[in-house]
Automatic annotation (TrEMBL):
UniProt entry keywords in alphabetical sequence: Actin-binding
Record-linked PANTHER family: COFILIN-RELATED
Gene3D superfamilies: Severin
Family: Belongs to the actin-binding proteins ADF family.
Transmembrane regions: none
Species annotation: Coffea arabica
Protein name listed in UniProt: Actin-depolymerizing factor-like
Database matches in CDD domains: ADF_cofilin_like
SUPFAM superfamilies cross-referenced by the UniProt entry: Actin depolymerizing proteins
Lineage: Eukaryota, Viridiplantae, Streptophyta, Embryophyta, Tracheophyta
This protein's record includes keyword Acyltransferase: no
Residue ranges constituting the ADF-H domain according to the UniProt record: 71-203
């Protein structure tokens, strides 16, 4: 688990990350500079902090070695539900959330094969983070029907810092549990995960 502490100093925010796996260590990662003094961190700063947190997570995971565990646990039904999407095609998408009481990732919602991409995006909360997998069907330039599975890390800029950190530090471990993912998209607003973005990646 990692924590963030932000201190305003002059015209910048100095954000320090603390790792419970490294209790005697703190790492001053970055300073966020502004043209004028702000009383709170702006949405763009939240976006940057989310990216920094993901990088920090990868760095600390590496320092603990390949056999170390990091992030939240993964409920068994997450993997079985994902396999239903991957192998049986009984779901168009699966949305996952972190259950802080259980300290694990759980399935929040599934979508039937008849549901559209708009149905999927409408199921994501506007102000909270989620993981999702989406089975994307498309037709190639050679008129061949194909499908690719996308892993989507949804971290909207308006969400709070705590869920951003929880989802960022648990993402890599969770994704490793889902074998056969073709592409990953990290989105902080809907434009970063529009259907055209998936088409471009798949082709």
């Amino acid at each position: 688990m990692h924590h963030i502490h932000c201190l305003r100093k002059n015209n910048s925010w100095v954000c320090t990350f603390y790792s419970l796996f490294l209790p005697n260590t703190c790492n001053s990662i970055t300073s966020l500079h502004y043209l004028k003094l702000h009383e709170s961190i702006s949405p763009s700063a939240h976006h940057l902090l989310s990216s920094v947190a993901m990088s920090f997570s990868r760095a600390t995971s590496f320092s603990r070695g390949p056999n170390a565990s990091s992030g939240m646990g993964v409920a068994e039904h997450c993997k079985s539900t994902y396999l239903e999407l991957q192998r049986k095609k009984v779901h168009r998408y699966v949305i996952f959330k972190i259950d802080e009481m259980k300290k694990e990732v759980v399935v929040e919602k599934t979508g039937s094969p008849s549901e559209s991409y708009e149905d999927f995006t409408a199921s994501l909360p506007e102000n909270d983070c989620r993981y999702a997998v989406y089975d994307f069907d498309y037709v190639t330039a050679e008129n061949c029907q194909k499908s690719k599975i996308f892993f989507i890390a949804w971290s909207p800029s308006v969400s709070r810092i705590r869920p951003k950190m929880l989802y960022a530090t648990s993402k890599d471990r969770f994704r490793r549990e889902l074998q056969g993912i073709h592409y990953e998209i990290q989105a902080t607003d809907p434009t970063e995960m529009e259907l055209d973005v998936l088409r471009e990646r798949a082709n």
